[in-house]
Amino acid sequence: MIHASGQGGQMAFDGQYVTITRNGFLGRTTHGRGEKRLHIASISSVQWKPPGALTNGFIQLSLGGADRQALKGSRTVDAAKDENSVVFTKKQQPEFQALRAALEQAIAAQHSQQASASVAPVSVADELTKLAQLVQQGLISQQEFDAQKARLLGQ
């Protein structure tokens, strides 16, 4: 479990779910007290702004669709109003960097699983048809075809 506490909110990630909690006075005044849980499959991207010399940073989770880009100078203020983001200080940045890295790795793994699941498996009949065409084109011999056919049919 990775946990990071920011200004008016906390984020935790257990490998499956991101939990955003709002505690304390600042959390209650901006979003209300409570908890929000997001499954990693519903998160499409992580927006990140590191803290500057005079400004706080933020981590913001996007849930499908396009990211909304705020005007320069108002991004942190807008993020503070977003229920899927947490604002943090320079001192709190290392915790949020670790959280960001874990989230991005999990999102990439989730998307690669979805991509590999969407690839249709090739049937034995399709493979045999392709091999027969190679024989007709003279690219493989009948013996090579027979060997591949036996392998495909488990003989």
What does this structure look like?
The chain is α+β, with helices and mostly antiparallel strands. It has 2 domains: 2-118, Pleckstrin-homology domain (PH domain)/Phosphotyrosine-binding domain (PTB) (PH-domain like, Roll); 121-155. It is built from 5 helices and 7 strands. The strands form 2 sheets. It has a 4-stranded antiparallel beta sheet with strand order 1-2-3-4. The protein has a 3-stranded antiparallel beta sheet with strand order 5-6-7, with helices on both faces. A hairpin with a 3-residue loop joins strand 2 (10-13) and strand 3. Helix 4 (124-136) packs antiparallel against helix 5 (142-152). The two termini are 49 Å apart.
Structural class: alpha+beta
Strand residues, percent: 15-25%
Number of strands: 7
Rg from Cα: 25 Å
Annotated CATH topology of the largest domain = PH-domain like
Q: Number of helical segments? A: 5
CATH class of the largest domain, anyone?
A: Mainly Beta
Can you tell me the number of structural domains? 2
